[in-house]
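Co-fold these.
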Amino acid sequence: MNSQSTELLQGTLDLLILQALALGSRHGLGISERIEQMTHGTFRVGPGSLFPALHRMEGRGWLSSEWGHSENNRRARYYRLTAAGHRQLNTETERWGRISFAISCVLEAR
Amino acid sequence: MWHPRQIQSFWRNLFHREQLERELDDELRFYLDEVVDRNISQGMSSDEARRAARMSMGSVEQVKERVRDARVGAWIASVVQDLRYGLIQLRRNPGFTAVAVITLALGVGANTAIFSVVDAVLLRALPFKDPKHLVMLWETEPSAPGGHFPVAGPDFKDWLVQNNVFQNIEAGTQDRGVLTGSGEPLLLTGDSVSPGVFGLLGIQPLYGRTFIPDESEPGRGHVIILSYGLWQRAFGGNKRIIGQNITLNGEAYSVVGVMPRQLRFPEIWNWKAEYWVPINFAQPAWKEDRSTHWLWVMARMKPGVTIDQARADMGAVSLRLAQQYPKTNKGVITKVVSLHDQLIGNVRPMLMALFGVVSFLLLIACINVVSLLLARTIAREREIAVRLAVGCRRLRIVRQLLTESVFLFVFSSVVGLAVGWGALHLLLHTAPSGYIPNVTQVGLNSTVFASALLVAFLAGLLGGLVPAIQSSRMDLHETLKEGGRTLSSPRQRFRSMLVISEIALALMMLFSSGLAIRSLVRLLDVNAGFDARNVLTLRVFLPKSSYPKPTQVVSFYQRVLTKVRSLPGVVSAAAATELPLLGGNNTTVYAEGHSFQENGSSALLAEICWATPHYFRTLHIPLLRGRDFAASDTASSLPVAIVNRTMAKLLWPHENPIGKRFTENQNSPKWITVVGVVGDVHVSGLNSGLSPEAYFPEYQDAKPTIVLGLVLVIRTVVSPDSLVSAVRSAVQSIDNNIPIYQVRQLSEIVSASSGQERFLALLLMLFAVVALLLAAIGIYGVLAYSIASQRHALGIRMALGASRPDVLQLVLIQGMKLAFAGVTFGIVGALVFSRLLASLLYGVSPTDPLTFFSVSFILLGVAFLACYIPAHRVVGADLMLVLRGE
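Predicted complex below.
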């Protein structure tokens, strides 16, 4: 992993991956780049964390994958959200909203 | 949720590892190549690009390893989730869970108990060295009843020398002894054996040594080996007994060894040896007497020799002997039996029958549980429909239902194993002795555990498959609309099929038990030939050292009997060497002057027994001709005998047997004159045929070793038990060193002789009753559900004018159709199965029509009841409630 990136909790990584796929399917590198883009460079996920997460989430039924061809015609594995994945994304988004609201309340109360 | 692709990936995880690895490889390579491209487009050279890409990616192997871990973890996590969900479901329906678990536990428990016995007795090898090469040799004649008889001494000696197929042959026989000098005198059973027997079987002593070859020479034979049990019982496990002398039958024997605790020396003729002494080769029976058959013979085949080769070789040997000694050995052939068959052969059919029956029981239990599962998924339709609607994949639901059913089955099996353990101990305690051959330790072992769990797993998979698949194929709309009460006919048909098979199996089990019961009744009906009521029996054993002369033995018994006869309450008393029904000695006899068989052999195998006067009177064996023994029949008077009716008919069919003569030994004929004929008595058991039997007066030239121990029979006016102490004092007043043993009423012996049939009938009946109950529950369940779902239709019928009895009849007919179908299949199955039982039955044909009818009747009756109860409940319900669809 990039030594500059902040440590990610597993749940957070899941959320980022889910969000990255919210609008369509991507291959592994594409997911990593999208996360970097969405977080404005704060989180850069290397293959050592990304691929285990992708396969784990596929095992839990949140993602599905299929082989396809990339822009420059290489064989690549594309991931996409399943229905359950969409629901998980909503649940996680909501949870994060509550957590961040709570923390900001605490910080403001100082 | 799960795609079909996920199921594919699950399989791939197990079976297509390589393919998965290759795909992962491709995926990571793609990633690397893309990063390289990006680097190049940022201006690096291709080498730099590649190096930078590799560095940023880190170790590829490590990535792969982490992906592999993640995959396994995900899979385990989802299985755990299924299990947790399943557990919650089971807890939420305690009634269903309890019934299913109990039903299965009963089936598994019964199966476990019987299978443990089958495993220990039939499947495991005997606990001796290289047991497959061990055989037993017997002599037999085409005319011999009972299959074979023991071997004559000189024949054994010749076999030793003349055979080509055995590397070791040993012999032995039963022995009885009284141990004195350490506490109460003990009457023991033992084996007198040739010295190499332990080496033959590969048995090492726990302490000390086994016999050496010259210990069967005269004068060297007073050594003894103790069994572990005897060593503990009589000598407190004291190691110092080795090398010391003990007193057996009044003579000193030096203890040379103790056998290990777990030794199970072959119990030939169900004789359990507590001690071993060497055979005395100098006994007269070893000399040239080829007509006294008294030895069992065990042999080890040379490596590479098969039992058929052994049979062929021994066939040639016995042919040679027959030619050399035509008077004794004509027509005598050798029978070779593997030791395993010898010890367990007669138990195999019974155990297989039991195992078959108990497997049926388990099948019925499984069918019931599957039916319950089906009913439950019907009840859970709503829940499943909702899950399907929200997007859960069908296969996921199937997998989850399967997990539940497998868990249920495995859990019930574990409970069943505990039940089985208890049942096994009960079985071992209550079985009549000798019922389960004592060859290896019977208990729950790893084989039993493993097979029970494996069967449970498979049963859970198979049993849960149909309900799971059916539930996932539901039509969502229908289910959600009607509130889950649709009558989907394929499902009902499947359940009906289940019930029909249950009933068929139950019928087969009932039929087997019916046959066993009828067998038992027939057996008990057999006229044993004597009257066992109010007869006391006991054994007395005289030590040879105190009674070395036959006249002393004779005098002892005469005085004892005189005393006993004078006791108040005694009608008559006598003594004999054996009691009826318990087996005895036999020998070949030759009638004077003629041969009675077509093949020219004039020898007849007859049972023999020595008896005192009044023996027949005491047991109420009818004296048909001539006279009983008298005090005048002594060692110095004419040798006489009394024969039974069968022997008289065989040897002198058209003549008066009184005055005719026969002999036991053709070589130096000592003629014995017949003075009386008595009725037949069953010698070895009620189900053995009637054999010819000769009785000799006990006071005449009897072989001293046998007559030292006699059985007293005493007919009393009232309860025989009340006279035991009086008899004991009478015996001890003659010689107070003589205790009495084995005090039993003759009626107990008679009922014990049918102990095995009784036990089998009991077991089969028990299993059949449980099966009947389960089948009744099964039919009740199916019918109750079917009626419940037809309530609406039935209610309308009644509103349109059908009377209650009409509706009741309609419902009953539905149910009884199932029952009749089940009974029909069951009868077909029973006809097949009972053929296997044929060898266990007595006096009953395996296709006995009376049993068929009564058993079918019972089953139909129970089925009727099971149908009537739910039918009655529905018909009695309030019409309006029914119509409103509550």
